[in-house]
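Appendix B, example 12.
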Amino acid sequence: MRILVVGAGAVGGYFGGRLAAAGRDVTFLVRAQRAEELKRAGLVIRSPRGDLLLRDVKTVQAGDASQPFDLVILSCKAYSLDDAIESFAPFVGPSTAILPLLNGMRHIDVLTEKFGASRVLGGQCVIAATLNREREIVHLNDLHALTFGELASGLTDRAQAIDAIMQGAGFDVTASDDILQQMWAKWVFLATLAASTCLYRASVGDILVAPDGKRVIEGLLSECRAVAAHNGYALGEDFVARVSGTLFAEGSTMTASMLRDVENRSRTEADHILGDLIQRGGEAQHERQISLLRVAYSHLKAYEARQAREAWASTEGID
């Protein structure tokens, strides 16, 4: 099975690197600068699960000639989806399966409209990783799990074949027969975490000691669960019990990656994680006079507006 990994950043580089090191036929679709980095230094992973140095990394660039790949693994930021699609579309053939590892659900709509539902899988990953100054992939904890499945549910021959290729590649993988339910569960958790930590500009532990902090997290979780239920993906008390250990952990230093983006003055996925969730909430969500989810989203859009204004002022030479 020929695998194309779009990008060689923290997530794609980690899972793609593990697959390549395990002997799978992996090619990375990268820009010229990243291709040169990989040629010079190799693909480097620093991880509690074992370091890796992968030499002779196979790469292609947008516009290169190639036969279609059997599997495309996509792990870009949601706001870069259109550019990513333009780069990998020529490598997609009639039997290519596309496995996105993005957060939220909007990308599924975009990909199925572009390539057809039969080519698109559902997927998610659980990993904390980043690129350091040396452009090495730094795995920040022990978690490195990937889950995927057919959008129509059930375990098809295609899903089982992909599962077989990924098993034994140095990370945890699960072929799910109900991937959309799992994607909604992750989305609700991430949206709650992102909305609360960005709204307070603080970690979970700090929020919990603030006046009404716990009630705010509880309110956000309730709103996000209501949107999931409205869309046919109810998340019961077992889900609440599972995520409560993280969302209500006293002394926890956990924050959402979206808050780290804000602190680094970077672009965020606010539209895709919070904005799209609000849009899918139906009339009840839009008619709320006081919606914590909408307040958190508005907070992030104000941040983006300020970033855009300051960027414009910088280009114009205005102090």
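DSSP finds 13 helices and ten strands in the chain. The beta strands are 2-6, 25-29, 43-46, 52-54, 59-60, 69-74, 92-100, 121-131, 137-150, 172-175.
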